[in-house]
């Protein structure tokens, strides 16, 4: 490979990495110039790239030219200040730097011995975050529990569901699998349903309890109690409850205090999915939304959603780490080592689905150190304030309505349909969303609440400012004018 790019050469790395950093920095400087939602058609890239890999090396300059001309048009720009869809996926300078370090070391830290710093830093930063959230001491590594970084909240809910399943199967026997019952609001993320499919929980044993508009789509404790009573009478075994702090559709908050008491009374494993809104709970004024977490068994939050930590970095805490280990541990001969055999260390391979794992704690550590708790709190408060400003703008126009009270940085709203529309404004609001997204100026996503098509405006991109919120509202009003004139 003389004269070409070597697999790892320090000076070549320096040269090429400088070019890449410049490219990324220029991308961020020009980010507002791109359509937020990619406007390409399916299959566009196969028409632009060769159908086989190159036989000989190509230059980084030519590759970056292709990125600009062929890849970026097919990118939906999650970091754009005009991105208001789904929930945010944050990037930051600190997050980038942590990712660079992780890529540079490129360790596969499945057990302590494979890189002690990777395991021990993860333990430390998860304890830091637990203390920022004021989680009960049972979730700290100094006790029987602890925290671990998963890839996504979907992985987090799967591993705790498996741990809970196996705990109950050990108690009631393997033949009782068909009787195990899972409970959650119908607003709970679909990741729980997928976890049940993977874990072998019968679809008919998943209780989707209907959340009502009168409770702002939070799970009603009375519904849970009633469902458990019915299942017990039928000879079933209630074993798992998932509560949510900040549902995907409307950022609803389930009443953890009341649900926790019911779960405790019936010995259910109680997991809380706070993937998005849990981040806000590092602010003292929002911490009360997780009151009752002391009665839960596990708690999850995505730092990559709203805490300036690049994807992926999903934080999971459990009160009993042995439950995870009993369910997920394997120890073939080639993984045995003195430190693990003496049981004086943590092997995170036994807390997750895959064996391999990246050094993800580096980026979280750098975020916490380079920004500090105070600035992270200000960052979240700013987005919540911007969302409140947007909600006020919506309420100022009698043609629109806010469907549920704004709690965090999500506003659920719609264009009020004329009374003679048979579909209750479903098509009208779909067309409004499609028009603004197709314009490329902003990007929104939607949900359906009580049969109504609802637009979701989620503030959370790092570069979003008040001017972007006001411009988004102007775009929405313009498109609403056009649609209403043509009805």
TrEMBL record:
The entry's keywords: Alkaloid metabolism, Decarboxylase, Lyase, Pyridoxal phosphate, Repeat
EC id: 4.1.1.25
Gene Ontology biological process terms, A to Z: alkaloid metabolic process; amino acid metabolic process; carboxylic acid metabolic process; phenol-containing compound biosynthetic process; primary amino compound biosynthetic process
N6-(pyridoxal phosphate)lysine: residues carrying this PTM: 305
Domain of life: Eukaryota
Gene3D superfamilies according to UniProt: Aspartate Aminotransferase, domain 1 (3.90.1150.10), dopa decarboxylase, N-terminal domain (1.20.1340.10), Type I PLP-dependent aspartate aminotransferase-like (Major domain) (3.40.640.10)
GO molecular function ontology, one term from the record: tyrosine decarboxylase activity
Pfam family, one: Pyridoxal_deC
UniProt pathway: Alkaloid biosynthesis
Catalysed reactions listed for this entry: L-tyrosine + H(+) = tyramine + CO2
Xref: CDD domains: DOPA_deC_like
InterPro entries (alphabetical): Aromatic_deC, PyrdxlP-dep_de-COase, PyrdxlP-dep_Trfase, PyrdxlP-dep_Trfase_major, PyrdxlP-dep_Trfase_small, Pyridoxal-P_BS
Cofactor(s) listed: pyridoxal 5'-phosphate
One Gene Ontology cellular component: cytoplasm
PANTHER family tied to this protein: GROUP II PYRIDOXAL-5-PHOSPHATE DECARBOXYLASE (PTHR11999), MIP05841P (PTHR11999:SF70)
Function, in words: Catalyzes the decarboxylation of L-tyrosine to tyramine, which is converted to norbelladine, a precursor to all Amaryllidaceae alkaloids such as galanthamine, lycorine and haemanthamine, and including haemanthamine- and crinamine-type alkaloids, promising anticancer agents.
Family named by the database record: Belongs to the group II decarboxylase family.
Name of the protein in question: Tyrosine decarboxylase 1
Organism: Apostasia shenzhenica
């Amino acid at each position: 490979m003389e004269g070409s790019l070597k697999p790892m050469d320090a000076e070549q790395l320096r040269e090429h990495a400088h070019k890449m950093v410049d490219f990324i920095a220029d991308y961020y400087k020009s980010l507002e110039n791109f359509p937020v939602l990619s406007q390409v058609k399916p299959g566009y890239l196969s028409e632009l790239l060769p159908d086989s890999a190159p036989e000989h090396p190509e230059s980084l300059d030519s590759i970056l030219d292709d990125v600009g001309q062929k890849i970026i048009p097919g990118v939906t720009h999650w970091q754009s200040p005009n991105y208001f869809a789904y929930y945010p996926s944050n990037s930051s300078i600190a997050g980038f730097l942590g990712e660079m370090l992780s890529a540079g070391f490129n360790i596969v830290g499945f057990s302590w011995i494979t890189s002690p710093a990777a395991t021990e830093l993860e333990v430390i930063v998860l304890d830091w975050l637990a203390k920022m959230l004021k989680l009960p001491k049972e979730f700290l590594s100094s006790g029987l529990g602890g925290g671990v970084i998963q890839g996504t909240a979907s992985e987090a809910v799967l591993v705790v569901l498996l741990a809970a399943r196996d705990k109950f199967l050990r108690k009631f026997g393997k033949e009782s699998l068909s009787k195990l019952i899972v409970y959650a609001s119908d607003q709970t993320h679909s990741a729980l349903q997928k976890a049940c499919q993977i874990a072998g929980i019968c679809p008919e044993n998943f209780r989707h309890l209907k959340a009502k508009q009168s409770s702002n789509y939070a799970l009603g404790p009375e519904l849970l109690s009633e469902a458990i009573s019915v299942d017990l009478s039928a000879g079933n075994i209630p074993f798992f409850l998932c509560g949510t702090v900040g549902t995907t559709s409307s950022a609803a908050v389930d009443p953890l205090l009341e649900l926790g008491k019911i779960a405790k009374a019936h010995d259910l494993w109680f997991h809380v999915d706070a993937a998005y809104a849990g981040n806000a709970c590092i602010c003292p004024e929002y911490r009360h939304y997780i009151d009752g977490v002391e009665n839960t068994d596990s708690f999850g939050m995505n730092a990559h959603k709203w805490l300036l930590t690049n994807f992926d970095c999903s934080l999971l805490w459990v009160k009993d780490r042995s439950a995870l280990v009993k369910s997920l541990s394997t120890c073939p001969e080639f993984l045995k080592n003195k430190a693990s055999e003496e049981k004086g260390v943590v092997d995170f391979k036994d807390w997750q689905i895959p064996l391999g794992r990246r050094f993800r704690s580096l980026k979280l550590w750098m975020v916490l150190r380079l920004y500090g708790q105070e600035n992270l709190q200000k960052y979240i408060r700013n987005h919540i304030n911007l969302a409140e400003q947007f909600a006020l703008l919506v309420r100022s126009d009698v043609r629109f309505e806010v469907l549920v009270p704004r709690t965090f940085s999500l506003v659920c709203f719609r264009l009020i349909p004329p009374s003679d529309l048979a579909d209750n404004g479903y098509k009208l609001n779909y067309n409004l969303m499609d028009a603004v997204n197709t314009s490329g100026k902003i990007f929104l996503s939607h949900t359906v609440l009580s049969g109504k098509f609802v637009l979701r405006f989620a503030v959370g991109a790092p570069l979003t400012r008040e001017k972007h919120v006001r411009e988004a509202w102007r775009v929405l009003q313009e498109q609403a004018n056009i649609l209403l004139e043509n009805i």
